[in-house]
Amino acid sequence: MRKLIYLSLLTALATQVNALGLVNSFYTRGQFLSAPPATYDDGLIGSLNPAANAYQKMFDIRFHWATEGNDAGSFQDWALYAGHKFGFGVLHQEFGDRSVTDYQLSLGLGGKGSAFGLGYSWSTGDDESLGREKLLSVGQIIRPCKHASLGVTGVFSMASKWNQVIGELGIRPLGTPFLTVFGDGAWSYGEKFKDAPWSAGAAVEVVPGISFVGRYFEDESFTLGLTLELGHSGVSSQAHFGTDQDLARYSYGTRVGSLRPSIIPEFTEREKYYTAFNLTGKIVYNKYAFFDGGKTRLYDLLHDIRTAVADIRVAALVINLSGVMVAHEHAWEIREELRLAREAGKKVFVFIDYANMTEYHLASVADAIIMDPVGLIMLQGYAMGRTYFKGTLEKLGLGFDEWRFFKYKSAVESMSRDSFSEADREQRQDYIDDRYESVRDDICAGRNLTIEQFDGLIDDTALFLASTAQAMGLVDTLARWSDAAAITRQLVHRRLRPMPTAMLWDKAVTSADWSPKPQVALVYALGECALDNGINARQLEKTLLSLAKKKSVKAVVLRVDSPGGDGMASDMVADALRKCAERKPVIVSQGQVAASGGYWISMYADTILAGPQTITGSIGVIGGWIYDQGLSEKLGMTSDYVKRGEHAETGFGVTLPFLGLTVPARNLTEEERGLVEARIREMYDGFVKKVAVGRKMSEDSIRVIGEGHFYSGIEGKKIGLVDEIGGMMSSITLAAAKAGIDPEEDFEILEIPRWAGLFHIGNPLSPFKAEIENSDIYQYLEMYARNPWRPLWMLLPGTYPTVPE
To answer: Given a cut of 80, is residue 66 above it in pLDDT?
Structure first.
């Protein structure tokens, strides 16, 4: 009987506590919140609205405590919160002679515009007498624009019918954190809406990182708070005034972990760091998500350089080129970003050990070049050539018929000749001259050399040991990469601390902005123009048409690194690009090579940018026919067929074992060749007309610069095939400007595709086969085996710089 009376009293007490709003109440559990979680700060790492976890950019730890009245030594309530996307919280509260400790796990997912979260909490201590229950919470935060943030949280008891719904609204009249006006309300099950508690207030950020917050509650109590962010840490305090407007207590908070907007580092950490970029390995467009170490993505590198330049804490950039494998046009783009870094006032130091023309050209932009004491520089100039297979084909018993009707379209000369044609020699020499002079001008400007001095270094010495390189002014200091920090300190005349790229300000800072950033799509078109491999024209067409309709994407940059290929694939992408350009700005950024079919997919862009060493143009069509002229007899192979149709057996012949390539048994007849020539000329006319429309030039002017002639980016700009000399980052900046994005406004880059795939698993059992399949002649044979009778808009593999991965 006594137990029953005790249990009844305990139940009545718990019911009364619930009625008083002391248990499970949003405002009781959120006593350390200075504003609703969807509108200010981080919402105590998802402890009240779990969706707030989605906005945690880095791991954070918070500790809060409260004092009794003016007695700073009277330690009463406290809380610990930690997390990044996934949060953990502990809240200890005292109610007279009773206390309870709440624990919560929460998870938030989503982006700027919308976030969703789940939470679970339980309690220990006097939880039964205080009516604490296990709770499940579901939260949502929606930020449709930079002026508004809406939050809703449902809290459900797992032991009773008690539940609570919390609604939040924040308004930023100016669209910035300078002024945030907020309000919220918490309605509990069985409670009348008019009796539900609520609060309202405002937060003012006077300067980044310093905010004042005032919050008024429906019971006439209110709080006044101050938050001071120091970068990776912060402190806060809050005065709580009771219903009689007397000071009830103070609460305090401290935070460490994530980087928050703050004006403090501008005074305390300005130019105290250096950022190192270790470029050992390949510089590629896309790499595999896992097990693909030793590679650096080009966009990541260029973006990180710009981010370091924008970071006031960074005084110097230190670049390690030891073991780098970089395409020469990509090296120029990296060099341009470093040049801009110097113009912005950053120091740039580059380390080399073994360097060729490309690597030294990149290094020459530096304030100082550091070289390994036993390193070597080779400055031998540039050569451009090709291997010819005419004699090889004859020895193998293979004939070749070149379908060439335009002067400079020399893609298949390697099959039909044993040396350059005059036209091919001319265009290659022009390209090499442009490339040499462009690099020479850059190096002379970077190292304060005259043209005569540079030409003398190339022609008279070429090979430089470290001591000679230093004596001749090619490098400044001899040291190891392991000494880079000490050398940097000597060069800037003060100690600098290392700043990892992951901690650079614009990468690490947790943005206080509400709305999603406008997007600029960076789309890659890499490799052979083909429907289902290389540029993957079918998928690329879908991507461009989809981006045309996507409202969040304000502009598109198409990065083209392609020698061309199948005209259908090229035209499919070009047409999709044209349709996309009708709805939003489209910029083409040409990489190593954007020629023939690679130029075709570029021509409808609003603006085309190329590097000075880019191979562009090659407006023309070519083809060829390789056939059996004794091969099968030498191999002892025969073939036979039946047919229905005059030309049905064209392309039929013996199939080579292991390689799976079919060699046609005969050449085309004069009639068949005439049909091919007519088709190629018709295709060329169509190509010329489309380029004229895309470039807003006359057909006659395109024919003058066409005929399959390829050009450097420098010459391409002079003749109108290219609009500006610039790289990927310049293209992105231009795209944003054309889209009307404010230069001061941040925007997001949407890369498509960002990854080459999840895993990269090689085939160590067949390296010989892989070597064969990567050879020029195999690629050509395989291409024509897949495309019999088909003229191609392309440069032959091996005649242009390799397209990076």
So the answer is: yes
pLDDT at residue 140 is higher than 60 = yes
Amino acid at 799: T
3-class DSSP assignment, residue 459:
helix
Percent of the chain at pLDDT above 70? 89
Distance between CA atoms of residues 711 and 334, nearest Å: 22
Q: Rounded to an integer, what distance in angstroms lies between the CA atom of residue 726 and that of residue 386? A: 28
Kindly report the number of other CB atoms within 10 A of residue 75's CB atom: 12
Closest CA to 314 of 266, 243, 252: 266
Closest Cα to residue 375, out of 484, 296, 477? 477
Tell me the average pLDDT of the chain: 87
The residue-averaged pLDDT of 458-483 equals 93
* CB-CB contact of 324 with 335 (8 Å): no
Q: How far apart are CA 416 and CA 391, in angstroms?
A: 9
Angle between helix 328-343 and 728-738 (nearest 10): 60
Rounded-to-integer distance, Cα 687 and Cα 405, Å: 14
Provide the H-helix boundaries in 595-669: 597-600, 631-635
Do the strands 210-217 and 222-229 form a parallel or antiparallel pair, or are they unpaired?
antiparallel
pLDDT digits (tens, 9 = 90+) for 357-393: 999 999 999 999 999 999 999 999 998 888 888 888 8
Token pair belonging to 97? 């002679």
**How far is the C-alpha of 448 from the C-alpha of 454, rounded, in Å?**
10
Which own/partner pairs from 539-546 qualify as long-range (CB within 8 Å, at least 24 positions apart)? Answer: 540/572, 540/573, 540/576, 541/572, 541/573, 541/575, 541/576, 543/752, 544/573, 544/576, 544/577, 544/579, 544/580, 545/576, 545/579, 545/580
Kindly list the distances between the CA atom of residue 621 and the CA atoms of 567, 777, 794, in Å, as whole numbers in the listed order: 9, 19, 7
**Rounded to an integer, what is the distance from CA 465 to the centroid of its chain?**
38
pLDDT digits (tens, 9 = 90+) for 480-504: 998 888 888 888 988 999 999 999 9
Percent of the chain surpassing pLDDT 90: 56
- For residues 674 and 240, what is the distance between their CA atoms, to the nearest angstrom? 93
Q: Average pLDDT of 339-368?
A: 96
Structure tokens of 314?
Answer: 């960074």
Tokens read off for 482: 């392991």
**CA pseudo-torsion sign 437, 438, 441, 444:** negative
Angle at 478 between CA 473 and CA 482, to 5 degrees: 145
